[in-house]
Design a protein that fits this description.
Pectate Lyase C-like; alpha/beta; about 350 residues; two-stranded antiparallel sheet
Length: about 350
């Protein structure tokens, strides 16, 4: 367990904040962590910093320095592992996590007290294809990069119900059916995504990654949801159906299709393109925002410290911007199919 002095020294070394800011932040975090587990404590710590940053200069310094920090290159190479649990041996170094997970739930926790990256992959089942996928997962650590790859579960068709195609044909499999991946009918391939009548794999795989302050994440998924606790320096997410729930992000890039995106704060930049699903950013204080959707709605609240260009466009969905009216320091391009949208 880190003492306040140890944690304060880590903040000074890693973030470059003043000793006063580091001491105040260390005491705040440890007071919160005394009654909560590290995931809840980290989330509350990040929220507390955001709340008091307007009135407390030391908190504002912490928030700004966390956002500025980016994963840096390291010459140190750690031992690689093929197991489903890995731990690095660097100290006071941000990490870049590369995550590939087709389904399930991925949880990333940025822990101010962490000095190493940790990752685990597990299944909620002890046997079956989801358990096999978890066992075949790989976690590798090289320098300040941790790479987590969860393979696709084995394709499965369990005898089940009747599948009706869009062209009127019917295919009978028995009493229960689960189809994973592409559904082949003759030479034709029909991607059915999550056509599950007997089995739902959306939460049967769990990936948990813990990172030090200043770390970033790159993730590719088809259906997995991503949950981020704490202040993450950078996120690059490519998803088909998975959703995103995040606390504080320095910069964020998302290429998605159906999942909803809920972000508490973006401090530098946002580049988001989705087809369906709502995009909500509670506090935006960056210098470049581009949020494009086809059918999904967009909700953005802009802080007084934001600057630069804000582009928010949705063809079918509603666009709601708060904090931009009368802001001549911003260039705002907000519209949908009906033209410009009201701003507040």
């Amino acid at each position: 367990m880190n003492t306040a002095d140890e944690l304060s020294r880590q903040y000074v070394s890693l973030l470059g904040v003043s000793e006063h800011a580091a001491s105040m932040a260390a005491n705040l975090y440890l007071a919160i962590k005394a009654t909560k587990d590290h995931v809840e404590a980290q989330q509350e710590f990040a929220q507390a910093l955001q709340r008091i940053a307007h009135n407390e200069p030391w908190a504002a310094e912490m928030v700004c320095k966390i956002a500025e920090l980016r994963p840096s290159a390291s010459d140190h190479v750690s031992a690689a592992t093929n197991s489903t649990t890995g731990e690095g041996d660097q100290r006071h170094t941000p990490f870049l996590a590369n995550i590939t997970c087709p389904n399930g739930r991925v949880t990333v926790t940025v822990d101010p007290a962490a000095t190493v990256a940790r990752a685990t992959v597990r299944s909620t089942e002890s046997t079956g294809r989801w358990a096999d996928a978890a066992r075949r997962a790989t976690i590798r650590l090289v320098g300040n990069r941790v790479t987590v790859v969860v393979p696709e579960p084995e394709p499965l068709i369990s005898h089940g119900t009747t599948f009706h195609s869009a062209y009127g044909s019917s295919y009978y499999f028995g009493d229960r059916v689960t189809v994973a991946g592409d559904f082949h009918v003759g030479d034709r391939v029909t991607n059915v995504g999550r056509m599950n009548a007997g089995e739902d794999g959306s939460s049967r795989l769990e990936v948990n990654v813990t990172l030090p302050l200043g770390s970033g994440v790159t993730m590719t998924t088809r259906n997995a949801d991503l949950i981020i606790h704490g202040a993450l320096a950078e996120l690059d997410l490519t998803t088909l159906n998975g959703g995103l729930t995040a606390g504080v992000l320095g910069s964020v890039t998302v290429r998605g299709h159906n999942g909803s995106l809920t972000i508490s704060a973006v401090q530098e930049s946002a580049d988001i393109e989705t087809h369906n699903g709502r995009t909500t950013i509670t506090t935006y204080s960056g210098s470049d925002a581009r949020i494009i959707s086809h059918n999904g709605s967009i909700g953005l609240t802009v802080a007084r410290t934001a600057r630069g260009r804000i582009e928010a466009r949705s063809y079918q969905g509603a666009v709601t911007l708060h904090g931009v009216r009368g802001r001549y320091d911003l260039y705002v391009d907000a519209r949908n199919r009906y033209g410009t949208v009201p701003t507040y």
